[in-house]
Amino acid sequence: MPSLPRVSREVQLAAVPDGLPGPEHFVLAEVPLPTPDDGQVLVRNRFFHVFAALRTLIGGGVKDAPVPPLRPGDTLVGPAIGQVVSAPGESGLRAGDLVSHWLGWREYALVPVGQVAPLGDALPDPVAHLSQGGFAYAALTRDAEVRPGDTVFVSGAAGGVGSLAGQIARLLGAGRVIGSTGSPQKADRLVRELGYDATVIRGAAPIEEQLAKAAPDGIDVYVDNVGGDQLRAAVTAARPGARFVLIGALSGQMSPHGTGGAAPVELDTYQLILKRISIRAFQGFDEQARSQWLERFGGWSRTGDITFPYVRVSGIDHAPRALREMIEGRHFGTVIVEP
């Protein structure tokens, strides 16, 4: 085993921003290489995921959220893939094993044994374990119960969840898949690369008008990553008995105003009742759902039926800039840093 460094670099929050976070709100700190105790695994991180909810954690979090808010001096967190450096003998882990865990944004992580998961060989590319496609799969199969022939609308279709959701909906038998995004360039890629039938572009025209043209017969399923005016437009376009599943709230998280912890929207309750629209919050991603997703994702990946769009950013020192660019919508798919 190569000799280990004496220090590890990690990205810490330097100040709580007034608005959207930028590189100036973070510091790249050098800390002593952590020494594991009994029950801890030392991991050399190889990749970590830059995800939208960080904006909310940085801004002060949301009451009752499963992850506490970040305070100045805290190291950022997020899904990561790394190699085991050392582990307790009874853990079953060996040096060099690839594992997933939650302590990204640092070169070396000290993780409790119970919070690391061996990757196994379910997926041909280890980086694909950082995909958020499992959320889309669970939302479509369990929460919205997509059916053959359904017209599915996905908001935030060029993001980490949406870039997989459209492909999954198609593989599950959807008859027409529509996605929303923020630019003509991304809209073109959604159709050309990911199999979307049509798109709506924020700011090009009222969302309701664009969605009416893209889905003249209405929508049966709505996978909501955004909220706001897109959720309102989906209610207008809904067919009787439509099923909505709420996964994210990017309209609030990416707003330059506030802390990213609220995404208010006004809906016409009368339309919800008349159309018998069911709106369900995403019910989580448990071990059963994860196991099923990995099996299907691996199979679809090996046959070329699905792709995992992602942007790889090299260098932990570029991670704060990658976060700001993700918030600004500059990237397509999942944003991953290779420290």
UniProtKB/TrEMBL annotation:
Signal peptide: none annotated. It holds the Pfam family ADH_N_2. The keyword Oxidoreductase applies. Residues 19-337 form the Enoyl reductase (ER) domain. InterPro entries: ADH-like_C, ADH_N_2, ER, GroES-like_sf, MDR_fam, NAD(P)-bd_dom_sf. It comes from the Bacteria. CDD domains: PGDH (cd05288). One of its GO terms (molecular function) is oxidoreductase activity, acting on the CH-CH group of donors, NAD or NADP as acceptor. Keywords: Oxidoreductase. This is NADP-dependent oxidoreductase. It comes from Nonomuraea cavernae.
